[in-house]
Amino acid sequence: MNILMLTPAYGKGAAATTQHWTELADYLSLEHRVTILTAYPRSQGDILADHDLKIVPVGTKVLARIANRHLRELMLWICMFFKCCALPERFDLVICVDTPRFAVVIASIRKMRDRARIIVWVMDLPLEQVVRRGDTLQSRRLIAKAANRLYYYSLKLADMVVPVGTCLKDLMIQRGVNRYRIEVIRTWADDGMGEERVASSVARMENGLPDRFTVMYSGYAGAWHEFTPIIEAIPELLEYLSIQFVFAGSGPGIDSISTEKSKQNWDRVFIKGLVSQAQFSSFACCGDIHLTSLKENMLGTCSPSKTYAAMAHARPIIFLGPASCQAALDVRDAKAGEVVGNKEEFIAVINKLFEDRGLLETYGSNARRAFLEKHSASPGLIAWSELIDRMICPH
Fold first, then answer.
1. Where do runs of H (alpha helix) occur along 192-320?
2. CB 166 within 8 A of CB 326
3. Residue 246 contacts residue 217 (beta carbons within 8 Å)
4. In DSSP terms, which residues pair with 161 in a beta bridge?
5. Are 101 and 111 within 8 A, CB to CB?
6. C-alpha–C-alpha distance, residues 83 and 58, integer Å
7. Where in the chain does DSSP place strands (E)?
8. Dihedral of the CA atoms 387, 389, 394, 395 (nearest 10)?
9. N or C: less crowded end of the chain, CB within 10 Å?
10. Helix axis angle, 343-355 to 357-370, nearest 10°
11. Residue pLDDT tens, the chain, 395 long
């Protein structure tokens, strides 16, 4: 089978979404011929000999000169459109992610020309997030609302839409996407992640942190992630417990923590930058508890993938946000931690896990087991392979 994949970036060591996309492309190229249109590729020479995979760079030099991200995304769409038209091969299937927006329209060129099937992989819904954010200019929200309607309408061009959680699926059905053309395949973490994990005290020594009970957040902290109850709870927890907080990554959420740390002189709150892939396993083990979060009004727009990296490292998880988010459902289903909705519940759970180290260990063991059985790369990639087989060769 000849597969075309449309993606802004391709290669490991980047954002989690790019990691997943890269792993899917590598996996499919073991059995199929895969062509990738991308603006930010890894070298063709990095591809293993047994992978039938070709990288076609799109607008890389042009995009590097554009500072505004909206203009850059528009230019990426234009470059992909013309390159997709120019490709001489015939394709059986086109898979695209949700960046650039309306990539499904580009994919439809090959549907008309080659009668190719189209799959859209929806990892988040940023236009929905803009519409729901209260701090966004009214004019921007109105533009986002109109674009959002067009986006859902454009998904009618797809033969299958693959969101990463049931909460996204439910929202898309509400917005008019055909429920029979939606199949949920959750995100994952690398199969080998967590194999070299160490005890938290050892990891803290390796990473220059005090050896103290640690609550950790690691990854991007966007405007859609919930941080207000955490900020409100930190002073009380620092006062009564021998505990520390570590926030690693970037984004508005971590910026707000950093601001409060400076204002209130929190000496047991540590702010770290982005952690490299090579250091991540050791760093993740520093946390006795890992935090993931989502604002209540952002339910259905994404599902925090950092949940599964914590599971891989056998770390208990506290999910702060709506209980029907896919990440929250997975934490509860695995008995890998707790789901809380406000400051009071957050403080109570931290207290409980600080006092009951046996429960902490049980949650960690359950998390690792759930990762191996459901949330590592292999189950997710097999689900993708089965979906493609059903679409292209229906019985």
1. 200-206, 228-240, 252-264, 277-284, 306-312
2. yes
3. yes
4. 120, 182
5. no
6. 7
7. 2-6, 33-38, 53-57, 93-97, 117-122, 160-163, 213-220, 243-250, 269-272, 289-293, 317-320, 337-340
8. -110
9. C
10. 100
11. 999 999 988 877 656 788 888 899 999 999 999 999 998 876 555 566 567 899 998 887 788 788 888 898 899 999 999 999 999 999 999 999 878 889 999 999 999 999 999 999 999 999 999 888 876 677 788 888 999 999 999 999 999 999 999 999 999 999 999 999 999 999 898 888 998 888 899 999 999 999 999 999 999 999 999 999 999 999 999 999 999 999 999 999 999 999 999 999 999 999 998 888 778 889 999 999 999 999 999 999 999 989 999 999 999 999 999 999 999 999 999 999 999 999 999 999 999 999 999 999 999 999 999 999 999 999 999 999 999 999 887 65
Can you read off the two tokens belonging to residue 315? 């770390």
- 319-376 tens-digit pLDDT: 999 999 999 999 999 999 999 999 999 999 999 999 999 999 999 999 999 999 999 9
In the chain, the domains with their CATH numbers are: 2-188+377-392 (3.40.50.2000), 200-374 (3.40.50.2000)
The tokens describing 15, both together, are 């954002």
Residue type at 245 in one-letter notation = F
Pair of tokens at residue 199 = 């005890």
Residue type, 136: T
- Site of tokens 């898979």: 95
Contact (CB, 8 A) for 177 and 152 = yes
* Integer-rounded Cα radius of gyration of the chain: 22
What CA–CA distance (Å, rounded) separates 103 from 98?
A: 7
The alpha carbon torsion through 255, 354, 189, 273 (nearest 10 deg) reads 30
Amino acid in the structure at residue 202: V
Phi, psi of 58 (to 5 degrees): -130, 110
Shortest CA distance to 78 belongs to which of 51, 94, 101, 50? 101
Q: Is the pTM of this model over 0.85?
A: yes
The dihedral through the CA atoms of 59, 61, 64, 65 has a sign that is: negative
Tokens representing 6 are 């449309």
Residue 270 tokens read as 């540590």
